[in-house]
Amino acid sequence: EPEVTQTPSHQVTQMGQEVILRCVPISNHLYFYWYRQILGQKVEFLVSFYNNEISEKSEIFDDQFSVERPDGSNFTLKIRSTKLEDSAMYFCASSVRDSEKLFFGSGTQLSVL
Amino acid sequence: QKEVEQDPGPLSVPEGAIVSLNCTYSNSAFQYFMWYRQYSRKGPELLMYTYSSGNKEDGRFTAQVDKSSKYISLFIRDSQPSDSATYLCAMSPLGGTSYGKLTFGQGTILTVHP
Fold first, then answer.
1. Cβ(A110)–Cβ(A19) below 8 Å
2. Does the distance separating the beta carbons of B44 and A91 come in below 8 Å?
3. Which phi and psi angles does B83 have, rounded to 5°?
4. What is the DSSP secondary-structure string of B52-83?
5. Is the CB of A3 inside 8 Å of chain B's CB atoms?
6. pLDDT at B97 exceeding the cut of 80
7. How far apart are CA A65 and CA A78, in angstroms?
8. Is there a contact between A91 and A104 (Cβ–Cβ < 8 Å)?
9. For residue A85, which phi and psi values (nearest 5 degrees)?
10. Could you tell me which chain A residue has the CA closest to the CA of B44?
11. A65 touches chain B (CB under 8 A)
12. Quick one: how far is CA A103 from the chain centroid?
């Protein structure tokens, strides 16, 4: 069964460092998303991406965040200068079309020290 | 008032019990309603989705939506230990670019013991 793959599963970084979280969406999907879940809190929408541009973004997704689809298979989330409060589980998701049927990856646990 | 409210539990039931999970919401723009299941250290997995008020059944699972009351439910019949997980309700508005912009509830931790 096709699945969304995220790497790495755990990422530890120092405050102020740049991190790139990587995702390989399901191959025939066209819409891509990033969500995050701070420990003990709700899963929160960050950004949606289609046709090589951002469709929608939340208030959380400020200038420190960027997304990119560098090739035909990968989808990345970059945090330019990490803060302690960026520590969270980051989930990538994809869907066939602009749909509520999102398929999530297993997440990358980001720890900012 | 929070957009989506869900009792975090935890909820512990014996095997075979009927489980009822609920969410309330305040945003009338929400038109799509989903239930996700999340196992420990895994991403949310879509269980059921519905667009309209009423019931939708899939095997042991029934999703119920009451838009007039802004209330959704998930019922699990004949619960099994393998159903032990966190259950998340999620919602999104209709149209535009917002289908994939889901608003989640807090999640209810469910344990089904043998």
1. yes
2. yes
3. -80, -10
4. SSEEEEETTEEEEEETTTTEEEEEESS--GGG
5. no
6. no
7. 6
8. yes
9. -75, -5
10. A104
11. no
12. 13
Distance separating alpha carbons of residues A107 and B45, to the nearest angstrom: 12
Per-residue pLDDT tens for A46-90? 999 998 999 999 999 999 999 999 887 899 999 999 999 999 999
Residue B28: exposed, middle, or buried by beta-carbon count in 10 A (0-12, 13-18, 19+)?
exposed
Percent of chain B with pLDDT over 90: 73
Give the one of B41, B45, B100 whose C-beta lies nearest to A95's C-beta.
Answer: B100
Tokens of B74: 């998930």
CA A108 – CA A15 distance, rounded (Å): 17
Distance CA(A108)–CA(A10), nearest Å, equals: 5
Number of Cβ pairs closer than 8 Å across A and B? 65
Q: Over the range B79-109, which residues count as b (16 or more CB within 10 Å of their CB) and which as e?
A: beeebbbbbbbbbbbeeeebbbbbbbbbbbb
The per-residue pLDDT for range B15-52, each reduced to its tens digit, is 999 999 999 999 988 988 999 999 988 899 999 988 88
Say yes or no to pLDDT of A98 above 70: no
